[in-house]
């Protein structure tokens, strides 16, 4: 069955070196991607932040306040999620421009495309200090994990 998907790369327009580095990694693997303009935290207004971010709720749940840059990162990802819906994609891989992409990414992508019944998977390396409820081996030296509590980096 053909899956409709895209690889999105979130990148600030002022971060041309990061874009070049990411493009080099992805192009070397033959991975086509679409650059999405990142929301710049330095340009967010007070109103934009408070319309999209509930400081009290975040502190209650995660015990910390988000910076303007972290709110902008969230808004950048939200733009990507909107594109998944608007473009009627089965799924997408959303990368930030500081991602390290190597040959294992191709195997990971193949493994992810076979999974069913998931809404959101965060691809990252987390130290073992985080409490994990469940681990599922998906092959190619990758595991899906369900965290007891969402890791905050």
Structure in words:
With 153 residues, this protein is α/β, with parallel strands linked by helices. The protein contains 5 helices and 5 strands. It has helices at 16-28, 46-52, 55-62, 68-86, 104-114; strands at 5-11, 34-37, 91-96, 132-139, 142-147. The chain has a 3-stranded parallel sheet with strand order 2-1-3, sandwiched between helices. Strands 4-5 form a two-stranded antiparallel sheet. The longest helix is centred in the middle third of the chain and has 19 residues, at 68-86. The model has no long low-confidence stretch (mean pLDDT 83).
Low-confidence stretches: none
Total helix count?
5
The CA-CA distance between the termini, in Å, is 37 Å
Based on Cα principal axes, name the global outline.
Answer: globular
Q: Report the average pLDDT across residues.
A: 83
The succession of helices and strands, N to C, reads EHEHHHEHEE
Total number of beta strands: 5
Question: Gyration radius, to the nearest Å?
Answer: 17 Å
| Sequence of strands across the biggest β-sheet | 2-1-3
């Amino acid at each position: 069955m053909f899956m409709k998907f895209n690889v999105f790369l979130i990148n600030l327009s002022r971060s041309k070196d990061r874009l070049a580095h990411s493009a080099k990694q992805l192009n070397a693997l033959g991975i086509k991607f679409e650059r999405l303009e990142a929301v710049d935290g330095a340009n967010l207004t007070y109103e934009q932040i408070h319309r999209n971010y509930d400081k009290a709720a975040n502190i209650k749940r995660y015990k910390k306040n988000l910076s303007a840059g972290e709110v902008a990162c969230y808004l950048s990802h939200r733009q990507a999620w909107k594109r998944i819906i608007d473009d009627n994609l089965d799924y997408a891989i959303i990368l930030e421009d500081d991602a390290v992409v190597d040959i294992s990414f191709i195997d990971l992508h193949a493994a992810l495309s076979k999974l069913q019944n998931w809404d959101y998977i965060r691809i990252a390396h987390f130290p073992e200090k985080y409490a994990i409820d469940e681990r599922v081996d998906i092959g190619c030296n990758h595991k899906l994990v369900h965290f007891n509590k969402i890791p905050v980096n």
